[in-house]
Amino acid sequence: MDIPRKSAAKKRRVKRILYALTALIALVGITIGVSKLQPAAPSVDRQTLWQGTVARGTIPRQVRGMGTLVPEEIRYVPAISPGRVEKRLVQPGAQVKADTVLMELTDPAIQQAFVDAESQLRGAQANLTTLKVQLDKTILDQEATLAQAKSDFNKFKMQYEVNASLGKTGLKSQLEVDLSRITAEDAESRVALETRRLAGSREEAKARLAAEDEKVRQLKDAVRLKLTQMNALKVRAGIDGELQTIAVQVGQQVTLGQELARVANPKKLKAELKITETQVKDIQLGQSVSVDTRNGIIAGKVIRIDPSVQNGTRTVDASLEGELPKGAVPDLSVDGTIELERLENILYVNRPVRGQEHATVGLFKVDPDGAGANQVQVKLGRGSVTTIEILEGLREGDVVILSDTSQWDSSPRIRLN
Fold first, then answer.
1. 64 contacts 385 by C-beta, under 8 angstroms
2. Which long-range contacts (CB under 8 A, 24 or more apart) does 97-102 make?
3. Summary mean pLDDT of the chain
4. DSSP state for residue 294 in the 8-state scheme
5. Treating both helix axes as pointing N-terminal to C-terminal, what angle do 108-169 and 174-232 enclose, rounded to 10 degrees?
6. Is the pLDDT of residue 37 over 70?
7. pLDDT of res. 343
8. What is the average per-residue pLDDT within 103-112?
9. H or E element that contains 188
């Protein structure tokens, strides 16, 4: 009969406990080790990435905007006289001269007013002629009266002188001498009176003629105004160029000042560019502009900066220098690039998708062997259309990923396949 030994059972129990403790310690160690492991770097197909190399040199700092070509010389043809559109003689797109008649208007009231003004002018001119004749006759009569008074004075003066001489010899009495003297003095006073009367008549004639002349002048101005209104019924282009639009139809009644048509000179165009408001702060008058018409590039200069903001942009006008390429017509869509300055001896790279001026961004710098890329913080400076200045974080010759890498922002490294 076998007798169980207690020492053997105790040994087996101790072994099981040791094995369990060992397994538990191993499990805890593995867990701690796994928790300290970094997540695997994501893999990215290098063919889908846009890369750029950091370089040093001189680059132009530019801003770009889209816009259209517009004429520098535009005339909006207004209605100088009210009326009804009788005829349209020219269609939009036609080449016109300054005196080309675009349309004809009619207005019986203006025509009648012109006839009435002419009639009033003729009447005033006739009255002026009659008045001149009357005043001339009055002055002639006054001159004749003055001449007779002078003649009488001379005669009475001579008679007095003779009587005075005879009176000294006693051949004439003192009474006759005094009477002849008084008669001569009366004649002299009459001459003075008639002289003043003639001067007054001449002043009166001058004033009456001036008043009548002013009336005639006013009526002439009225006739010219009515004639201008009559001529304005034939609406003319006003400048040489191309008729762009006609804003009225035959039979339509138009009012004074209403826009009837628009004429522009297609040979003198400028570019109206829409520039983001944040980029306009560095634009100045006179800066160089390159305007791409998609059929050629035209050089130009900044000539105006609109102070107002519309939809986040401001309008910058650029003149065009040199001959226009074929197809350069008003309202043509163009791209304009404005050169702000030249940045000398700087580190730069092609502009990343998320690269904003004066910002710090995370960019992936590619390893020398090209197997992967580490994320580095890069401080950016001044930017241009396609390039941007590097202030800190990269060196000349570094290759960085310029594509949008926002999906890997949480990963310090990516693998490139």
1. yes
2. 97/237, 97/240, 98/236, 98/237, 98/238, 98/239, 98/240, 99/236, 99/237, 100/236, 100/237, 101/234, 101/235, 101/236, 102/77, 102/235, 102/236, 102/237, 102/243, 102/246, 102/260, 102/261
3. 87
4. S
5. 170
6. no
7. 87
8. 89
9. helix 174-232
Q: Decide which of 354 and 414 is more confident.
A: 414
Q: What are phi and psi of 148, to 5 degrees?
A: -65, -40
What's the rounded Cα separation, in Å, for the pair 120 and 2?
161
Q: How many residues does the chain have?
A: 417
Higher pLDDT, 11 or 327: 327
H-helix or E-strand containing 60? strand 55-71
pLDDT tens, residue by residue, 45-104: 888 888 999 999 998 888 889 999 988 888 999 998 888 999 999 999 899 999 999 999
Q: What string of H, E and C letters represents the secondary structure of 391-402? A: EECCCCCCEEEC
Q: Which of 193, 184, 182 is nearest to 153 (CA)?
A: 184
Calpha distance 183→286 (Å, rounded):
94
On whether the CB atoms of residues 361 and 354 are closer than 8 A, the answer is yes
Report the alpha-carbon distance of residue 201 to residue 287 in Å, rounded.
Answer: 74
Residue 73, helix vs strand vs coil: coil
pLDDT > 60? residue 239: yes
